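Hey team,

Sharing the Phytosulfokine receptor 2 run so nobody has to redo it. Sequence (674 residues) first:
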Amino acid sequence: MPPHTLLLLVVLLATSLPAPTSSSDPSSCAGRDDAAAIAAAFRHVRNFRPPRVRACQPVQELRLPSRNLTGAVSWAALANLSALAAVDLSGNALQGAIPGGFWRAPSLRAVDVSRNQLGGALRVERAPRLLSLNVSRNRFTGVEGVQALSGLVALDVSANRIRAVPRGLRRLARVEQLDLSGNAMQGRFPGDLPPLGGIRSLNISYNKFSGVVDSGTVNKFGHSAFVHAGNASMVFSENSTATPPRRPSPSPPHRKSKQGGSGGTTTGRKATGRSRRGRHLSVVAVAVMCGVASLAMLLCLVGCVACGVLRSRKKGGEGDEERKKKPQWGDKGGDEDEEEDVVMAAAAKGAAAAPVVLFERPLMQLTLADLAAATSGFGRESQLAERGGRSSAAYRAVLPGDLHVVVRVVEGAVAGLGEDDNPAAAATAFRELARLRHPNILPLLGYCIAGKEKLLLYEYMEKGDLHRWLHELPAGRPDMDDTGGGDAWEAAEDRRSVSDWPTRHRIALGVARGLAFLHQGWAGSGRATPVVHGHLVPTNVLLGEDLEPRISDFGHPSAGGGGEQSLTPEGDVYAFGALVLELVTGQAGWDEASMSWARGIIRDGKALDIVDPRVRDEAAAGAEAEREMVECLRVGYLCTAHSPDKRPTMQQVVGVLKDIRAAPATPGAQTQPA
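Structure output:
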């Protein structure tokens, strides 16, 4: 074979061989690039644990809901994830704005950043593949560029501060689910909205729309979609050009509806009606007289029944029946959501003007209607998850002035107040309760009395409760294997970790101080009556930004009698002892059997065997730290003594805990029990 022919074959063979794949070069691996992009996006976010990204496999979903994330996300870094299709960061405490560059991610299909603290104007760039966008319960003041989301199917911007309908919203012809509620939004209905024919779910309640809503539209979307939806110029019309209603329209009645018909009557029918009008005057008069007489008899009958009911209530039979008849503020059943929304709207309508009293902001004028707007009509989406220690339903709300609060429905007695006490007595009791101020007590910010319903307003604690931090969140050092250069961030997280023994001791001391303050009563009340908590559990201990504990859900009246957990200060001491055992051992669900087991181990001098291994690892098995842990378990042992007389007072417990470990003074230490 000639040499030049051989050379040609070698060249052809070399050019035909496949190029080296990216897997042979780690620096060009897509998975590695995605991991670095995620780390860069969350470098300023606390409590973030980098997800494990498989080598050379691009990230398609980023789901971190309810992870207690706080800080600002670098959204532009996420735009570099070429395969990213779904983002779920809902239920955190993320702050800042979302820039337009984020929407450059080419594969983005669904974004859920609801229930955060994001704000400013939401600027959207071209993202034709985006199908679902949920930015509800944030602080956005507007939406710009929404017309670029041409493929959008579901849009939820409820419970923000958007005062005008987003420009270009009506161009979104593919939208099937649209929620604009709770914004005080101004606009024209239905002109500023997408075509209603393609929308299956709509909610524009608690806004300031103008326009005409026909009965067919109300029947299609339900009355709850239009609760407080418009200003004075919004009209509900009986005339319907939509499909026939499936049930009578709940829109406001019109006096001419019986005469005008449905809009399909002919001129002949109208003429016939006018000719017969005089003929039937006498018949109408007789009918009216009969109706008046019947109404009088009915009123008498109702009065008799009411008297009988009142007598039966006085005999002690009103408790269960009254609770059955009372309007429900929270959703109780999945299939009756719409009906309960209507019930809530009816309940609020009668007392919508009931004032909200805020002790520290007396000039802020709010009403029950404002609370309903801030909680989406006391709906399921704003209701806080049921916890084991909560005494009643609670809802998260953001009031004017960026005031984040929890609205709690009062059920049963509180602060010595009976369920049926008059509004004046209730207001006095709530004002007395608000005078309980201490760094380790969650203060009462305000109240609202609307008929028999009583609502209390408390500060919203972003960090959640002690049970969540002990048992539901990953503790210890964050996993930094996938990214480097996180030493400073790791050290900061270590200081905030509940696995850190000094933090756990500080939590125990703070709870003890708060209980001791409650048991002393409050100054200026003219009496030394202790305030008994009655149900101290980790879910009723909330944590502040610095993990300083605050006792919540207190205010039960003092009651006599003994028992381990009775409504007495001694019962609170027992509950505190159980909380200390849970805090030091890391074990949940303490009952009589587990309490007896732990007390036996402590009594036998083997307390160190039941200390939470996570805490011992953090303390590096130091002799001094282990001594402190054992001493704290002995405090739990003393507080859970079977005889109430043998239990220490909470003020004594505070002194013992302070002696176990020297801790820096907390803010307001001069007012705390010694």
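The two ends are 103 Å apart (CA to CA).

Ping me if you want the raw files.
A.
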